[in-house]
């Protein structure tokens, strides 16, 4: 960008027009860049190399006032957090209180990157049960993908419970 960097642009746009929803489209994959963009006011973070379908999903999520993190970088956020990154971020939603203990447990495992089958084996339940918990989580939280669930778990300190 010729006159300012992307983070400054996000901050100024957010300050001037708080209702504006910003999706960061970038080539940067580091946890620091992701964190900085979200702290500056971006509601989504997607890589330029992402497929068109993911870009459309990101745009739709941000337009519907949901947080979207590209799955290609969501793992970096979780890894940095688990490795003692900067720690807890402010909660975007206060809905975590509405989750059952089991739903929080499933959400934590999802955010850690585990597959439904692995979660089912770990919890000694069927894959169908895990799928039902995932669907309930998405419905209660109004989130529609694993990246959004992971972001929610990080922002609401589910990973530390």
What is the CATH topology classification name of the largest domain?
A: Rossmann fold
How many structural units, i.e. domains? 2
* Broad CATH class of the largest domain: Alpha Beta
Strand neighbour order, sheet with most strands? 1-2-3
Tally of helical runs: 8
How many strands in all? Answer: 3
What would CATH call the homologous superfamily of the largest domain? Response regulator
Shape: elongated
Poorly predicted runs of 5 or more residues: 86-94
Largest sheet: 3 strands, parallel
Order of helices and strands: HEHEHEHHHHH
Q: How is this structure best described in words?
A:
- With 161 residues, this protein is mostly helical.
- It folds into two domains: 1-87, Response regulator (Rossmann fold, 3-Layer(aba) Sandwich), CATH 3.40.50; 88-161, Arc Repressor Mutant, subunit A (Orthogonal Bundle), CATH 1.10.10.10.
- It has eight helices and three strands, in the order H-E-H-E-H-E-H-H-H-H-H.
- Strands 1-2-3 form a three-stranded parallel sheet.
- The model is unreliable at 86-94 (pLDDT under 50).
Write a short abstract of this structure.
The protein is mainly alpha-helical and 161 residues long. It is 55% helix and 6% strand. It has helices at 6-16, 31-40, 52-63, 71-82, 101-111, 116-123, 127-141, 146-155; strands at 23-26, 44-47, 68-69.
């Amino acid at each position: 960008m010729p006159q300012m960097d992307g983070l400054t642009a996000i901050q100024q746009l957010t300050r001037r027009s708080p209702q504006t929803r910003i999706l960061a489209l970038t080539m940067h994959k580091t946890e620091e860049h992701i964190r900085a963009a979200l702290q500056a006011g971006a509601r989504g973070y997607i890589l330029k190399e992402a497929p068109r379908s993911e870009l459309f999903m990101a745009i739709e999520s941000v337009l519907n006032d949901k947080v979207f993190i590209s799955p290609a970088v969501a793992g970096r956020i979780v890894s940095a957090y688990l490795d003692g990154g900067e720690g807890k971020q402010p909660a975007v939603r206060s809905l975590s209180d509405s989750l059952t203990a089991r739903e929080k447990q499933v959400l934590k495992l999802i955010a850690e990157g585990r597959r439904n089958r692995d979660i089912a084996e770990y919890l000694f339940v069927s894959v169908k049960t895990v799928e039902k918990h995932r669907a309930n989580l998405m419905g209660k939280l109004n989130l529609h993908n694993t990246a959004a669930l992971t972001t929610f778990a990080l922002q609401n300190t589910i990973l530390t419970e």
